[in-house]
Structures are given as C-alpha cells and as structure tokens.
Specification:
alpha+beta; 4 helices
Length: about 130
C-alpha cells in the first residue's frame, strides 16, 4: 500500500520519539506517478508527477529555508541494490532541519499545507524517515 502523507498516529509517534533539541535529517524517498493525480474538480492543469512535485517544491523549499533548514542532498535514484524487487525510487532528498519544532512548524504553515496538494498528486509512493546526525 502506498505511503504518501503521514497519519495522525505517525505524527504522534514522530513527536514522541524524536528529541526536541537535536537537529534532524529527514530522508525522503520518492516515486512519482506518470500522470499527476489531482482530486476531481481541481483547477490545476494536467501534468506529470514530476511536474506536480516541482509545483510543490516551489513553496516547500522556501518554507524549509524559512525554518532554518536546507536541502543537503537531492539525487536521482539509479538502482536499489538491497531492497524488495518491487521497491523502486525515482528520487532521494536529504533535508536538514535545526530541530523537531522547526520541522513541525513548517508542517503547520498554511501556505505549506496548501502546497501539499501538489505533493499528494505527484507521488505514487514515498518514505519519510527522521534521523539524527552523529
């Protein structure tokens, strides 16, 4: 089953497990839909999943920087050497946030929340894994 957006239970577990004062590295694994899947009645022009993700990224990157974060790695996935055969990814992002609070404040931002419509339409599947640098 695809995983696109965090559930309330996943957000609660993240909030409980991740330290308040430590920087975060968020690992994003992305698989794009061939054709973006906007909700019926959407006013957005049809486009590819990659194009819809680019629409999301215009706002998301500004909001990441606005909370003191930065994209540290953005790369095209080439081949999964150790993974289930059906688990393929198109892109990897590693985004640094100064704290859990900074990340959560970005998620709560109304402009960011509105932009997630494009992310949801863009992705066939994703993973978002919180890590702490050593």
């Amino acid at each position: 089953m695809p995983s696109i957006n965090p559930s309330p239970a996943q957000l609660a577990a993240f909030t409980a497990k991740v330290a308040d004062d430590a920087p975060l590295l968020m690992l994003n694994l992305l698989r794009f839909q061939t054709q973006a899947s906007y909700a019926s009645g959407s006013s957005h022009a049809p486009c590819s999943g990659r194009e819809a993700y680019a629409r999301y990224s215009q706002t998301a990157l500004r909001k990441v920087r606005g909370v003191g974060g930065e994209v540290q790695v953005m790369a095209a996935a080439q081949a999964a050497l150790i993974a289930p055969a059906d688990e393929q990814w198109d892109e990897l992002l590693l985004v640094r946030y100064p704290s859990k609070a900074a990340f959560l404040s970005m998620l709560a931002d109304p402009e960011y929340r509105a932009a997630t419509e494009h992310r949801t339409a863009a992705l066939a599947d994703s993973r978002l894994i919180a890590t702490t640098p050593r």
